[in-house]
TrEMBL record:
The chain crosses the membrane at residues 24-50, 90-110, 122-142, 169-193, 227-249, 277-297. Residues 85-298 form the ABC transmembrane type-1 domain. InterPro entries: ABC_transporter_permease, MetI-like, MetI-like_sf. It comes from the Bacteria. The gene is lacF. GO terms for cellular component: plasma membrane. Belongs to the binding-protein-dependent transport system permease family. PROSITE patterns: ABC_TM1. Gene3D superfamilies: MetI-like. This is Carbohydrate ABC transporter membrane protein 1, CUT1 family.
Amino acid sequence: MAVSVQPSRAWRSRLRTSTVDQALAGYLFILPALVELFVFLLGPIVYAFVVSFKHFSYLDPLDAHFIGVQNYIHLFQDPVFLRALWNTTLYALVVVPVQTALAMLLAVVVNRIRGKTVFRIIYYLPSITSTVGVAVIFGFLFQPNGLLNRLLFLTLHIQGPDYFNSPMFALPAIMVVAIWTTAGQFMIIYLAALQDIPTELYEAAAIDGAKGWQILRSVTVPMLKRTTFLVVVLGMIGAFQVFDLVYVISGNSSLPQQDTMTVVLDLFEKGFRTMQMGYASAMGFVLFAIILVLTLIQQLFLGREDS
């Protein structure tokens, strides 16, 4: 005969008490992180959202008053913001695809050669180099008597412009610098993803007679699809939030600032130079909405391909 052993009431009580104590201890451990999250992240976000519906300036904080959606309406009537939005969109449409393709290509090449660690360091160094230092170096390269124009003159007998001070070439020159500084960072992500691709897939493709380009197109690129989604999303967020590189280069340029104005740079000018904090807050939330919509669209396409 089987004998069922029922836990005593005292034992069940101790078990419940122990579970509660463990849960309480867990909440106490995460309490500092929660306080930091609410005080330094969620709190300012909520406050900025409220401010975006006000006329608010630190030059006259007593004059702050609610104006509804007027800041948002004025944004899309502001020629400076519209030019900044156009520049930022163009910057993202060029930089993100090029840096993604270049990062994947570098990762595939570096993954197949000896001295992999050395090349990782070499290609990653631009990502951790000071923005001011990068701007200074490329300023010497892109000046009228710089290395680029000398090479153009020696090879094609073309005298190039002063790129950072040219209305036509200033923004493309900034794009080149941005690609140079970010491709290595995303290459590291692709290198990590390449290690997870099963070697059996490459062996099966080779047995079927596939060669280098066919293997890359049929095996490597599809297996890196989710990594590519991550890289594109991170690249898009970084492109729409570009500030330091443009700020340093445009600060030393003789061009009108609108030629290289970006959304975050315009936000900085409105918020911290003219102290229009309500208007700048509205600009920040419009930027957030743009990035969110682009991310959801990319996620939608990824899910459709998976299905």
